[in-house]
Structures are given as C-alpha cells and as structure tokens.
C-alpha cells in the first residue's frame, strides 16, 4: 500500500 | 526499470532536446506553440514536487531536474529571448478549456485526496492533452517544419513506449496505475493521426503539410 502511492515513473 | 521504460524516458529527453536545439540553432520558435510549452512546464513542475519529499534513485531525481529545467528554458526562449519570432497569431487554442476540466477531474478522480497527490494527478491528466495547442497550431497553418515533426514523433513515441512498459509491469510486477494508464492511452491516441502523416510523408522526405 505504501508503494502504491509512490510514483516511481517520470 | 525495464527496457521500454528506459527507452521511453530517453525518447522523451530526445524530444525535449530536439526542440531546444531547434529553437537555439535557428534563433527562432516559429511554428512552436508556446501554450503547449507552458502546459508541459506546468506538468513537470506539478508532478515533480516529490523531488523534495521522496528519493527514488539518482536516475529518477536527475531526470526530473533535467526535464523541469529544459521545459522552463524552452518557455523562456519562446516568450522572452526569441519572442519576436513567436507565431502568437496562430497559437490560439483556448488553454482554459483544458486546464479547467483537467483541474476539476484531478479533484474528483485521484488515488488520494491530498495536495501532493491531486497535483500529481493534475499533471498526469494535463500531460495527456498538453500537445493539443501544438497540433491545433499545425492544423491552422496547415504545415510543420520537419524538425518540429521529429520533436512530435519522439514525444509520441515516449508515451507509446510507456504503454508497453505498463503491460510489462502488470505481467511481471503485478503493478498498475489506472490513472496513468488511462491518461497515457488518451495521450498516445492523440498522436495517432500525426504518426500516420509522419510515416507517410516526413519519412519519405516530404514536408508535413495538410490538404487545404
């Protein structure tokens, strides 16, 4: 869930 | 990070650099929609606010900084340094017709109702339509310089590659971000008509001109 909100793309 | 994502980022960078170099070398921004460039700069600024809050990788942060600086530099060249060459009479797309609905939608459909997340969503939606003033300008003048079409090609290619990246990530990582995917699809579709002209005309050595 935490990773869900992290936008790792540009 | 997969090869499609990397290739997408690189073609995005190539597009931005092509545009900057074209303006710089010809000392002119004729045929370039300043409005689209302002929209793209807004896209980067609102999306990359997380530069200050989270660290993903050196690659991620440096690319973000490069994209933001280049897009702001482009806006500066169009509206200040080479303003005399800016074709404002043909750059008449009403930007408020994009920004207002996109702003409203980002409040309604987002992953999380927080300022940062709403701004991120706004940037994703805005990016998908930010090229419209440029395409509108080309349809109005009926032609585009070949170098401008290369810029558009790489910009469209970037989104196309991101779509493949998302299919990849869905299969191999179980990752998907519906907001990004839907907006990315819309964005790619907007380039389809242009891609057709690019392949049938520009790649065959002809100038891109539309039938009157």
UniProtKB/TrEMBL annotation, chain B:
Membrane spanning residue stretches: 6-24, 36-59, 65-82, 119-139, 151-172, 178-199
Any GO BP annotation: protein transport
Source species: Scyliorhinus torazame
PROSITE patterns named among the record's database cross-references: ER_LUMEN_RECEPTOR_2 (PS00952)
Record-linked Pfam families: ER_lumen_recept
Subcellular location: Cytoplasmic vesicle, COPI-coated vesicle membrane; Endoplasmic reticulum membrane; Golgi apparatus membrane
Protein name: ER lumen protein-retaining receptor
Superkingdom classification of source: Eukaryota
Molecular function via GO: ER retention sequence binding
Family note: Belongs to the ERD2 family.
InterPro entries from the UniProt entry: ER_ret_rcpt
Keyword annotations: Cytoplasmic vesicle, Endoplasmic reticulum, ER-Golgi transport, Membrane, Protein transport, Receptor, Transmembrane, Transmembrane helix, Transport
